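Memo to structure team: turn this sequence into structure tokens by end of day. - J.P.
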Amino acid sequence: MSAVDRELAESGIILIDKPEEWTSHDVVNCVRQRFAIGKVGHCGTLDPIATGLLVIVCGRATKLSSHLTTQDKVYSGSLTLGIETHSEDRTGEVTATADPSGVTETAVRAAFAKFVGPQQQVPPMVSAIKQGGKALYKLARKGQVVEREARSITIHSLEITEIQLPHVSFKVHCSKGTYVRTLCADIGRELGCGAHMRDLRRLVSSPFLIENAYSMDDIKAWEREEFLAHMTPLGKVLTDLVGQVRPS
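Reply from structure team:
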């Protein structure tokens, strides 16, 4: 098999249900090394604390990464009121606490409603965004906090699925570049008691669904040919994408 034929054979997309504690890069490395694929990438980073849908692109499909990363996302998650952390999630160092006992369900619902629609969001210090050529998370490790420019995002919908104060579970449909950690922290500030993200799971990375994703146990049990057989070939991916943009 020629180098070109080999690259075409291993070009496509596979959906993986990322487990907690794995980084997105860990998943990419596992696929690249286990199945000896030269080019592997992902579309939209998930923090180690987060689980759920990770779109893995292989071979020539890596060229689609920038396009697929711009699509909307849907997550389920939960926040905890009364505790703020430096990373805005439960893995971070506690930076402030407040008594949330006076917060009512009515106040929670009103606060959530304020965050639906187009808005400006200041990204967290613990993020891969670069400023002055340096990733913010590297500055955060040194205890540095720098001013960050707000970015335009859109929260298309934000549904509360359960309230068990101080915990609130939710489902959010948002635009690219949205930090759900920051959304949780902002809701806490709106309520006057602070908050952090307790957990997060990606359900949709448009047009892909978590129901079609494979577990890492599946991935680790396959040999190379099995992996390639489960991957959606590049040709079908392109056909599907073209079909989405055709006028009805």
